[in-house]
Amino acid sequence: MTESPIAILDIDGTLVDSNYQHALAWYRALRSVGEIYPVWRLHRLIGMGGDQLLTALGGEDLERRVGDQAREQQGKEVDALLEEMSPLPGARDLLLAIKARGHRVVLASSGQERHVDVFLDKLDARDIVDDWTTSADVEASKPAPDLLHVALRKVGAPSDAPSVMIGDSVWDVEAAKRAGMPAIAVRSGGFGDDELTRAGAIAIYDTPGDLAKALDDTPLA
Predict the structure, then answer these.
(1) Which H helix or E strand runs over 146?
(2) 105 — alpha (psi -120 to 50), left (phi > 0) or beta?
(3) Is 185 helix (H, G, I), strand (E, B) or coil?
């Protein structure tokens, strides 16, 4: 009997509509320490972990000068925007549909623990999913594959267990590729289909709800 693949889902931007708020939070955090970067450049990096975003944005010099301070302030800016973040259409339906097909479900987030707690409540997902991750679980976040390996360990599975990643950014897809698992993408990250496909996504859907309806056409059938 073939082992049922484990479903690993990103939360921020994939299940909860939060990417543009995160971009604005980074803009405000950086501005507070005297660094101004266009919001569109920040948006292009959302989905990458905060431990890597500043180096990708402005090099090691930016990270060295303001990294810790900017990350701390970004967390506070996100706190102020949490009320504006809502589940994307069909997000909870997708979790239920995956569970109904007998798959284990892990939510893989590199977000701060207090933010992940809020998202779990918004999704009413604690009783659906098998486990979840936060930034506290890894030293290197996406696009490194570490978070996905931790997600598998959370359910007692080896790093080469059959699994599928569902995300919204090229960074999710890249992390899945490095972890040796296929990735399905939703468009809420604001990346083009060509970018997601080039990164390695095997399928792309508008919303989690659209994916839920098409689940039988995926490895999570």
Answers:
(1) helix 146-154
(2) beta
(3) strand
Task: Read off φ and ψ for residue 6, nearest 5 degrees.
Answer: -85, 135
HSE (CB half, 13 Å, CA atoms) of 74? Answer: 24
User: With contact defined as beta carbons under 8 Å apart, do 8 and 219 qualify?
Assistant: no
Q: Can you say whether the dihedral through the CA atoms of 102, 143, 34, 36 is positive or negative?
A: negative
Count CA atoms within 13 Å of residue 2 on its CB side.
Answer: 9
179-215: per-residue pLDDT in tens? 999 999 999 999 999 999 999 999 999 999 999 999 9
Amino acid identity at 143? P
The pLDDT tens digits of the residues spanning 41-71 come to 999 999 888 889 999 999 999 999 999 999 9
Torsion angle, CA of 56/160/165/105, rounded to 10 degrees? -130
Q: How far apart are CA 183 and CA 211, in angstroms?
A: 13
Block residue for tokens 């599975």: 157
Structure tokens at 24: 């604005």
